[in-house]
Amino acid sequence: MLIPRPLTSLCHVLAPVSLVLLLAMNGCSDAGAPDPIRPAASSGATAGARTTAAAGTNSTAPPAGSAAAPPAGSAVAPGGSAQASAAGAGTAGAGVAGAGVAGADAAGVGPGGEVAGLGTFAGLVSTLSEPNGEFFSDNLISNETSYLQVAAELAARPAGGVYLGVGPEQNFTYIALARPSVAFVIDIRRDNLVHHLYYKALFVEAESRAHFLALLLGRPWDAAGDPGARADVSAVIRHAEKMPADAATRDATLERARRRVEETWGVTLNAADRKAMEVMARQLHERQLELRFELHEKKGRRYPTLRELLEEDEPGGVKRGFLATEEAFRFVQRMQREHRVIPVVGDFAGDRAMPALAELLKNKGMPVTTFYVSNVEQYLLEPKVWEKWRRNVAALPAREDAVLVRAYLDQGRKHPRQMEGHRTATVLQRFSEFAARQEKKPYRSFWEVATDGAAPAR
């Protein structure tokens, strides 16, 4: 979520607001390639503890169509390559729990080849992206405690299609819930693109949920004692925190990630990008799961920690974050390994990334099903800017039931669906309702946008 600040002029904030579109795309062409970057099992502090398979995990691939594989047949690609990738859930290492060194990286070690016939992963990241824009917060993690408020509704919807999103790690949960075939994350901040590339590298390397979290926090991982596929998120966190964080582990993880991004996947990073990746790794290493969203200008507000976000419940009391279940994690991991999550630098109301993406999806017959916009629209309400946003949404090919996922921040006016104990509310609106409402009467404020058709919280 983006936090408002007092403005002397809206223009300098509204114009650059952008979003990273996570687009789940086709599998890579060199699935059997060995991984030259993965560390040896006996290296560093994990000597004697690390193994090629996490104890207690399932060693067989999930069936096609399960939560651990993108929906078969739902992405359109020349020659059916995307369909084949989605259906071939039994291929080596494709979302396999504890598949071992070779298998675990098999789907994500190469440059990616053709992505749904559209070019390479690196090419899409580069050609769709706009120049970097600035914002007044460092969104290393989300600040939306209500992000699971719509979890049951998203999970009940048909799988497939294209997911679009903005911001950091909450996208992984929405991808796991929406089960798209492809995903793009668009954000005005190039740092967000770099952060997602770092996450991608960790997803590719991780052999389990606890291993992923240990990598993220700069900690060694005890493979032999891994809690396995049936562990709840609290057990996953406990195991990830079992061994002390150390700078050597952090730096080695960062270097492997950088090499994957630049040397293996062919994404060009400049000096500022490398610094942004290093800052992310250091912040997570220093602050661990107590890391919070922060404004550049301190306002005295308390935002949730990463630990609190990972352990958050949906309204029904069920934990449904991307690390809460093996199914959720493996689905996102497979998407990442198959280059199906693509970060882009772009402006929601811009003239480059959004229109180019809309044309791309139209040409390939890929409809948008879910568009997580957070509260970005709050910064787009200047008339000329809002009209561009409307235009960009209207240009997207969309499934009949496509929805916008919005977040609202209580700054003195409580949302009708705001749950007890939360300062945010998360709501859904159909694309069709968004368009029809504005044909009758334009929105005059973000309050009207966020509460349009909202019922009281359950």
Automatic annotation (TrEMBL):
<dbReference type="Pfam" id="PF25046">
    <property type="entry name" value="DUF7790"/>
</dbReference>
<protein>
    <recommendedName>
        <fullName>DUF7790 domain-containing protein</fullName>
    </recommendedName>
</protein>
<keyword id="KW-0732">Signal</keyword>
<feature type="region of interest" description="Disordered">
    <location>
        <begin position="39"/>
        <end position="75"/>
    </location>
</feature>
<feature type="domain" description="DUF7790">
    <location>
        <begin position="141"/>
        <end position="444"/>
    </location>
</feature>
<dbReference type="InterPro" id="IPR056692">
    <property type="entry name" value="DUF7790"/>
</dbReference>
<feature type="signal peptide">
    <location>
        <begin position="1"/>
        <end position="33"/>
    </location>
</feature>
